[in-house]
Amino acid sequence: MASTTAGSVMIVYHPQYLTGYSSVECESPARVASIMKGLGDDMIVVMPGPCEERDLLRCHSEGLLAAERMDPLRYRTALLAAGGAIRAAELALEGHVAFGVVRPPGHHANPGHNWGFCIFNNIAVAVSRLLADGRIRNAVILDIDLHFGDGTEEIFRYCDAVTVINVQAPTPGEYLEATRAALEDSPGADILGISAGFDQYEKDWGKNLRTADFREIGRIAGSFAVKRCGGAVFGVLEGGYYVPDLGLNCIALLEGLRESAGRPKISID
Questions:
Q1: What is the rounded distance in angstroms from the CA atom of residue 99 to the CA atom of residue 215?
Q2: Can you give the pTM of this predicted structure?
Q3: Distance (Å, rounded) from C-alpha 79 to C-alpha 51?
Q4: Which CATH class is domain 9-260?
Q5: pLDDT digits (tens), the chain, 269 positions
Q6: How many Å from the N-terminal Cα to the C-terminal Cα in the chain?
């Protein structure tokens, strides 16, 4: 394992994300396994702990937590997914490009209900934790998933400290331009979080973006983070269901993030 130095790419992962908790077939453990299989030797894997229930309650109702406790295995895994997002955000503030290879996903989890394979809103829980601890004053969340991140937008609807960007565009060129324009129009912040869904991929449900486009999204987001967020950027896995290329696309996004900060290219097995 490589030494932990500023600028390292940190992968936040827990083996329990492979758990076969109750979910739909497409949201399978194979998704995270495919990403972990593709990591190069210079990637540093960090194991998170579960988040605390008070972290969840900043974003979700007690009623939602009570309903999810009825499925203990899924609940424990969801706590670890939110905990993984928190750890990735903390590592970003320490100067690393950080990515949570977490499961279940989260951006469709609203304050009082969830849907779309999501349990708790991992990225919202992470940003809310940093705000509550006084580690950041504001944040930008960029959602690149095929589906609109309604949960994240609803959680932060009345929070002036958080800007939520959902990118939607029909062609690769328009998508990249929309991403660039939305970030340029947003205020600076102490951290950039990326809800990283890969189902816009040309072989996935969206049938739109290529692997090279995910790399360019990383460059665009990384450049924004360097110029407007002090370099602090992290990502959290959302959608992406074409398993054979999911790891390739995730690594491409991370390559773009690193390149934009002038860091060495990631090696891929």
A1: 14
A2: 0.94
A3: 5
A4: alpha beta
A5: 334 455 578 999 999 999 998 889 999 999 999 999 988 777 899 999 999 999 999 999 999 999 999 999 999 999 999 999 999 999 999 999 999 999 999 999 999 999 999 999 999 999 999 999 999 999 999 999 999 999 999 999 999 999 999 999 999 999 999 999 999 999 989 999 999 999 999 999 999 999 999 999 999 999 999 999 999 999 999 999 999 999 999 999 999 998 886 554 444 43
A6: 14
Instruction: Tokens for 127, please give them.
Output: 């940003």
Strand order in the sheet with 162-166: 44-46, 9-12, 97-100, 233-237, 192-196, 139-143, 162-166
Q: Which residue's entry shows tokens 């950039």? A: 192
> Is the separation of the CB atoms in 109 and 38 below 8 Å?
no
Are 189 and 131 within 8 A, CB to CB?
Answer: no
| Alpha helix ranges (H) inside the chain | 30-37, 53-57, 62-68, 72-93, 122-132, 150-155, 172-185, 211-228, 243-260
